[in-house]
Specification:
The complex is a heterodimer. Chain A is mainly α. Chain A has a domain of 172 residues: Orthogonal Bundle (MetI-like fold), CATH 1.10.3720.10. The two termini of chain A are 30 Å apart. The model of chain A has no long low-confidence stretch (mean pLDDT 86). Chain B folds into two domains: 72 residues, no CATH class; 209 residues, MetI-like (MetI-like fold, Orthogonal Bundle). In chain B, helix 6 crosses helix 9. Classes of the chains: A mainly alpha, B mainly alpha. The interface between A and B is large, with 103 and 106 residues.
């Protein structure tokens, strides 16, 4: 009991530096942001929920939210599956495992600004991709990959390229925690490779799955860097996302619109977190039974 | 079900071949762009203009890609390092903005992570969820809040406008917490039995045992800070304060021939850091991935 009290005091001491900064730089100003979302542009008159109505009906906001959601729903499942497949392959690759691992993680540390130069070599009108395609069939027209409808796919691919290594490391950590004896037992029972993956590997990786999803989301918003560097601040409609929108509002210092949208996004994130937690909690409860 | 799986199972050797082929293809997608880039950084100006006019945004001409330069030269690097003072200033700015931030993250984040990982206190789970939420929110959401504070404190358009909010980023706290949680309980109990107080346990057992997690968190923060684009674009009006990450996006056309060399110099610190600390980074990520 005494130790518990002591620990509570100590944790206050240990957390104080972190919490005080979070309070000054996040919480306090966010309260101000919430306040401003109910005021007019001058920050004087109370507007009720007028700002929310305006932002909700705003074409750009709708487009950006839709595209962001579309991107998350496309890129994260793809990353999830592909990185898992790669990690399984790397885990079982005897020789050369080191090289494969190092190579696949490398894109994570390469600055977007540097690698975008090479993407342009591949993707521009006179670039390698178009040359290869017209080499296969002379009838294919050159495509401006970055500025047309294909921009979305380009962005998804760059996201996968950059983040697959990190997620692979997470999966590998999960994989190495699975005792080899489980596989041996399965082999004795006559289970093949795929059966082992389905009945042993995947169930054992459940804890890693949550972490992979969270960190994939964290990294997904950084794809704005690639989007901006490839296509500028006014990209194709299909990749106009929340960061672009905020960038434009920020230029005109449209504080009450940004505040309102920020509050809406935090609410959306909270809702998503609640669903996520519910799914995870529900499953844990089921398992403990 | 298992019967179906058993039928699909091919020969062992064949499987290994397919695996290696697939992995090699994946690695090729990493190496090909890098080789193209390194090769371009050693090309003289004329060759670059002949090969990569369109990607450099100067004109239109078919790309003539090459994995090795025809006339290798260090011209671009020399131009960049000796005749581009602007580049040096930006490199230095990046250092000024990133390293104090990392130091701050260490001072603030390590004890907080220790508290989350090792102490019991009311509201711990909720507070940690709040940190996760902060971590997941995109920069743009906190941008407004940050802007308001920085404006109030008169810090806009200064190095501190990037350093201070960065110090309280929730991401390193999260990674370090996971890694402290992975420190074996028996290790700590042994320390308590030997008469160590909570402080000694933290400094003498916790920090050394959790060091892969600390290194990982700070390495990832470094990579992110080195690449920062949104923050400096939003908070720094004064070009003399801009970090290296804004050099390439803002490169002028008559300097375009050094772009590839600049890219190589820019990626050197994070790449070397990664190759140097690869083992610890993997351990750290592993610790964040598995809870005991």
């Amino acid at each position: 009991m005494k130790r518990k009290r002591r620990q509570a005091w100590l944790s206050v001491l240990f957390l104080a530096p972190s919490l005080s900064g979070v309070f000054v730089f996040m919480i306090l100003p966010f309260v101000d942001v919430v306040r401003r979302s109910f005021l007019d542009a001058m920050g004087k008159t109370f507007m009720g929920t007028d700002n929310y109505g305006l932002v909700w009906k705003n074409e750009a906001f709708r487009l950006a939210s839709r595209n962001t959601l579309h991107f998350l729903m496309t890129a994260i499942p793809l990353l999830f599956v592909l990185s898992l497949v790669l990690s399984l392959l790397v885990y079982r690759a005897g020789k050369g495992r080191r090289i494969f691992k190092t190579s696949l993680v490398l894109p994570m540390v390469i600055p977007a600004a540097a690698v975008v130069l090479v993407w342009k070599i591949f993707l521009c009108m006179d670039g390698i991709l178009n040359q290869v395609l017209s080499g296969i069939s002379g009838e294919i027209q050159n495509v401006d990959w970055v500025h047309g409808e294909t921009a979305f796919s380009v962005l998804v691919v760059t996201y996968l390229w950059k983040n697959i290594g990190y997620d692979m490391l997470l999966w590998l950590a999960g994989l190495s925690a699975i005792p080899e004896s489980l596989y041996d037992a399965a082999r004795v029972d006559g289970a093949g490779g795929l059966a082992q993956i389905w009945y042993i590997t995947l169930p054992c990786l459940q804890k890693t799955m949550g972490l992979v999803v969270i960190l994939s989301i964290v990294n997904s918003f950084r794809v704005y860097r690639e989007a901006y560097l490839l296509a500028g601040s006014y990209p194709d409609q299909t990749i106009y996302m929340i960061p672009h929108l905020f960038g434009h509002w920020f230029l005109t210092l449209d504080v009450q619109k940004m505040s309102t949208a920020a509050v809406l996004l935090v609410l959306a994130a909270l809702a998503a977190a609640a669903v996520f937690e519910l799914l995870l909690y529900g499953r844990n409860k089921e398992r403990s039974r | 079900m298992p019967d179906v799986f058993r039928k699909i199972k091919g020969s062992k050797r064949g499987n290994a071949c397919i695996r290696t082929a697939f992995l090699s293809f994946a690695c090729l997608s990493v190496w090909l762009p890098l080789i193209l880039m390194v090769s371009a950084s050693f090309m003289p100006k004329d060759e670059l203009l002949w090969r990569y006019l369109s990607p450099m945004g100067i004109g239109m001409a078919p790309v003539r890609a090459s994995l090795i330069p025809s006339y290798p030269t260090m011209e671009a690097f020399a131009e960049l390092l000796f005749r581009s003072p602007g580049f040096f200033v930006m490199f230095w700015n990046s250092c000024i903005q990133v390293f104090p931030m990392l130091f701050g993250q260490f001072l603030v984040g390590v004890p907080a992570a220790w508290a989350f990982a090792r102490f019991e206190f009311p509201g711990k789970k909720g507070l940690f969820l709040f940190y996760i939420l902060l971590m997941v929110l995109p920069f743009q959401v906190t941008q407004v809040s940050n802007y308001l504070v920085l404006d109030r404190l008169g810090l806009l358009n200064s190095h501190l406008s990037l350093i201070l909010p960065g110090i309280w980023s929730a991401f390193p706290v999260f990674i370090m917490t996971r890694s402290f949680e992975a420190v074996p309980k028996t290790l700590l109990e042994a320390a308590y039995l030997d008469g160590a107080g909570e402080g000694q346990a933290f400094f003498l057992v916790g920090i050394p045992a959790g060091s892969p997690g600390i290194v990982t968190a700070l390495t990832l923060s470094f990579i992110d800070g080195w690449n920062a684009l949104e923050q400096p674009m939003a908070y720094l009006k004064d070009r003399s304060l801009w970090p290296l990450s804004l050099y390439l996006p803002d490169i002028v056309q008559d300097k375009a021939s050094v772009a590839f060399a600049a890219g190589i110099v820019m990626m050197m610190p994070p790449v070397l850091l990664y190759l140097n600390g690869e083992g610890e980074l993997e351990q750290g990520v592993a610790a964040s991935g598995v809870k005991e």
